[in-house]
Amino acid sequence: MTQEAETKAKAGAIIVPVTLFEQNCTILWHEPSKKAVVIDPGGDVPKIQAAIKQTGVAVEKIWLTHGHIDHVGGAAELRDALKVPIEGPHLADKHLLDNVVASGARFGITGVRDFTPDRWLAEGDQVGIGELTFDILHCPGHSPGSVVFFNKELRFAHVGDVLFNGSVGRTDLPGGSHATLIKSIKDKLLPLGDDVGFICGHGAGSSIGQERMTNPFLTGEM
Hints:
CATH class: Alpha Beta
Strand content: 25-35%
Structural class: alpha+beta
CATH superfamily: Ribonuclease Z/Hydroxyacylglutathione hydrolase-like
Order of helices and strands: HEEEHEHHEHHEEEEEEHEEH
Shape: globular
CATH architecture: 4-Layer Sandwich
């Protein structure tokens, strides 16, 4: 077995598109132990629970990339159902988590709750699941408290709504800044390496190298 195959066998992931926003709720697990985390449970909690059961993993944590309603709408409900802690996002998104109900009302979303995570995450922190360790990169711009989860060994990141396949996160929401977002991507994500693959908050994933070469917001950036 090759080194690459051995590395990839250490983790598994499935994406569960949730709500009308088609947000990529991600179930990620350490393959040997089946210990898992749910990243960004934006809603449709019964659908997420069904996927957990079907996958046969043991969810021990919920991770949040940022505080927008389409990524956190189901977090409080899922925390209560699974009795696991919520980690993330960065404290700069506290105002969003304090206003989940109000934000949901603007989109006609009911049944959501304001909440506080069990742990705020900051640049340089680490989180883990099973034997997998992820570095935390604070990448503001889409929201003030957006974070990226990066596993150096797997050459894999979950970038939330910071970077997309062929695009970048929207910055027209309160607290958003296009200049700040591009700086986050250039300073934090591009240096990770072209071989790093990523899952994003909506749509198909990609790699850092692919986006460096073809993303119209980034082409020519080194």
